Amino acid sequence: MTESNLRIGVRSQTPTENGSKTIDTVEPSRQLNDGELRQLRRALQRPPREFGYPVATWTNNLARHYIRDSFGVAYSLQFIDRLVKAVGVAHRLERWDV
After folding, report:
1. Are 48 and 55 in contact (CB under 8 A)?
2. Whole-model pTM?
3. E-strand spans in the chain?
4. Residues 92, 55, 51, CA angle at the centre, nearest 5°?
5. Of 98, 86, 12, 84, whose CA–CA distance to 55 is shortest?
6. Per-residue pLDDT reduced to its tens digit, 58-68
7. Domain spans, the chain
8. 3-state class of 59 per DSSP?
9. Which sign, positive or negative, has the C-alpha torsion 65, 96, 80, 1?
10. pLDDT, tens digit, for every residue of 53-95?
11. CA 49, CA 5: separation in Å to the nearest integer?
């Protein structure tokens, strides 16, 4: 998986002067490189407890915290959802935090 495969934008709505909304696509401020993507994939295949988190199952929000703590970059939950799908580990994550 290469970095270029993960140039996924995040959509947001911006109100215009007349009250309608436009949809903007925003690139994340920094993309993870190939080594970081491999590290992320390996991490999400292991229990979060091995990384100091007090839970047994990964969630998108927990993956978001791991990425911020490990790589120093903050992504939206929508981007995390796309990212874990792109690296092939979405099936291992619980969809929602409880």
Report:
1. yes
2. 0.68
3. 10-15, 21-26
4. 80
5. 98
6. 999 999 999 99
7. 34-87
8. strand
9. positive
10. 999 999 999 999 999 999 999 999 999 999 999 999 988 887 6
11. 29
